[in-house]
Amino acid sequence: MGNGQSVKTVNLEGVFEHTVFDDGEIAKITRLYSELGIDGILNCLLPMPILPLILSWLRDQGQREGMSGDVTIDQIVYLLDTLHPRQSLDNKRDLAWRLYDGDGDGRISKSDLTVLYGYILPAAKVSTHQVLAERVLAPFPDRVVKKDTFPEILSDERLYDLFTRSI
Question: Do the Cβ atoms of 128 and 121 come closer than 8 Å?
Answer without folding.
Answer: yes
